[in-house]
């Protein structure tokens, strides 16, 4: 059994790969901050629901269930998806470049923090796997 057989581990690895790719795209945006006509790019946000569904594929016993009649209903009782807001480009220079370094730095910081959180969660999960695999009393 490898770590790829554990759905959570493969989902974390996929998330870290996406964050790594996003960091590269943001770095390219920063590198082209003075290139005439350059438009900043970004990766499409990962769909967490699809990521979890892919990680739990084949595990029918992992779905949400209502264990008590006093609990919230599983089917439709939760929060609906928020309204998507489209924001226009914040700044475009005279030469057509629309890279805003402050926005790129924010994206870079967000990606770094999310990557560190994923690595930390991965390390904790691996520690639990090692602890479970260890012989009793050792």
TrEMBL record:
<dbReference type="GO" id="GO:0030694">
    <property type="term" value="C:bacterial-type flagellum basal body, rod"/>
</dbReference>
<feature type="domain" description="Flagellar basal body rod protein N-terminal">
    <location>
        <begin position="21"/>
        <end position="39"/>
    </location>
</feature>
<protein>
    <recommendedName>
        <fullName>Flagellar basal body rod protein FlgB</fullName>
    </recommendedName>
</protein>
<comment type="function">
    <text>Structural component of flagellum, the bacterial motility apparatus. Part of the rod structure of flagellar basal body.</text>
</comment>
<dbReference type="InterPro" id="IPR006300">
    <property type="entry name" value="FlgB"/>
</dbReference>
<comment type="subunit">
    <text>The basal body constitutes a major portion of the flagellar organelle and consists of a number of rings mounted on a central rod.</text>
</comment>
<comment type="similarity">
    <text>Belongs to the flagella basal body rod proteins family.</text>
</comment>
<keyword id="KW-0975">Bacterial flagellum</keyword>
<dbReference type="Pfam" id="PF00460">
    <property type="entry name" value="Flg_bb_rod"/>
</dbReference>
<dbReference type="GO" id="GO:0071973">
    <property type="term" value="P:bacterial-type flagellum-dependent cell motility"/>
</dbReference>
<dbReference type="InterPro" id="IPR001444">
    <property type="entry name" value="Flag_bb_rod_N"/>
</dbReference>
């Amino acid at each position: 059994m490898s770590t790829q057989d554990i759905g959570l581990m493969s989902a974390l690895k996929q998330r870290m790969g996406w964050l790594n790719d996003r960091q590269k795209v943001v770095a390219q945006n920063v590198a082209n901050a003075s290139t005439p006509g350059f438009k900043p790019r970004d990766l499409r946000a990962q769909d967490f629901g699809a990521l979890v569904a892919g990680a739990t594929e084949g595990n029918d016993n992992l779905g949400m269930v209502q264990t008590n009649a006093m609990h919230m209903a599983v089917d439709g009782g939760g929060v609906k998806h928020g309204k998507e807001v489209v924001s226009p480009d914040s700044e475009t220079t005279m030469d057509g470049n629309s890279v805003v370094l402050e926005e790129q730095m924010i994206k870079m910081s967000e990606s770094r923090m999310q990557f560190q959180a994923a690595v930390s969660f991965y390390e904790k999960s691996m520690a639990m796997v090692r602890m479970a695999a260890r012989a009793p009393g050792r």
